[in-house]
Amino acid sequence: MKTRITELLGIQYPIIQGGMAWVAEHHLAAAVSEAGGLGLIGGANAPGEVVREEIRKARKLTMKPFGVNVMLMSPHADDVAKVVVEEGIKVVTTGAGNPEKYMDMWKAAGVKVIPVVASVALARRMERYGADGVVAEGCESGGHIGEQTTMTLVPQVVDAVKIPVIAAGGIGDGRGIAAAFMLGAEAVQIGTRFVVSTEAVVHENYKQRIIKAKDIDSAVTGRSHGHPVRCLRNQMTREYGKLEAEGKSFEELEYLTLGALRRAVQEGDVVSGTVMAGQIAGMISKEQTCKEMIEEMMSQAEKLLGHE
């Protein structure tokens, strides 16, 4: 399945791993790249030097291309943006903001820039500023979300820009990949399914919570103050919902979730931690290696798209 994205990134399959905070570290990124997709190291809120270390560790595990996701809201975003160039990374995805101020530096260094967007307006703007592609992410995805669904956002973004579009949000098997291609996407970004991969260094409780999730187990917190986050329902989401209903301030709500994602991912606290996961958690039933996941999804997608 050759597309403009596989050509642009030098990858075998049109699958990109999401740059999930606390999850997307060097083991996972290298495993996805080794399996023919594009692995990503999630910069999240980490300092530049931590990201540099992760890049170097990933290089020991794979010779294939991998990228870095730069979280633009991070206080360390400026440093991470420079580290990417210094370490010779060739692909960057960006989240939570607008990467315009780094574009000249990245483009001069030959970095391919693929911002994550949740609206047509931002996709157009990114194209104007020289983005090589965009990830159109629907609200089915885990973590920070916009309001549009993947089904409606992707075709509108495809119609609005000439650069290739990667679909994200609610994709976890070959049917989702085939559907994304039908909507005009040229690759997909997958997060939640890779969280339960054998190579993901994630606490077993977190993996099991996703594997056991049902279709209705997903909740969105933070809509009242414009920072919606999708995670799996637990004591933390109930408490958050109660405080939101009482009209508590953004600061008070933020205090409740301080360190909650790290607690869930690393310490396995799936009761009062934040278990970020997309709506497809209900479709995920087993742990597999990244290679098994990618090959299974691709053979299913190719059958459906008549590429066999």
Describe the protein in words:
Strand 2, helix 3 (48-61) and strand 3 form a beta-alpha-beta unit. The strands form two sheets. The chain has an eight-stranded parallel beta sheet. A three-stranded antiparallel beta sheet has the order 7-11-10, covered by helices on one side. It is 43% helix and 15% strand. The protein has 308 residues and is of the alpha/beta class. The longest helix has 15 residues, at 290-304.
Brief summary:
It contains 14 helices and 11 strands.
Which key terms come to mind for this protein?
308 residues; alpha/beta; 8-stranded parallel β-sheet; 3-stranded antiparallel β-sheet; 43% helix
Unreliable stretches (pLDDT < 50, length at least 5) are: none
- Which range best describes the helical content: under 10%, 10-25%, 25-40%, 40-55%, 55-70% or over 70%? 40-55%
N-to-C series of helices and strands: HEHEHEHEHEHEEHEHEHHEEHHHH
Distance between the termini: 10 Å
Task: Indicate the mean pLDDT.
Answer: 93
Biggest sheet record: 8 strands, parallel
Q: Looking at the structure, what is the overall shape?
A: globular
Strand order of the largest sheet: 1-9-8-6-5-4-3-2
Structural class: alpha/beta
Tally of helical segments: 14
Strand content: 5-15%
Assembly type: single chain
Radius of gyration of CA atoms, rounded to a whole number: 18 Å
Number of strands: 11
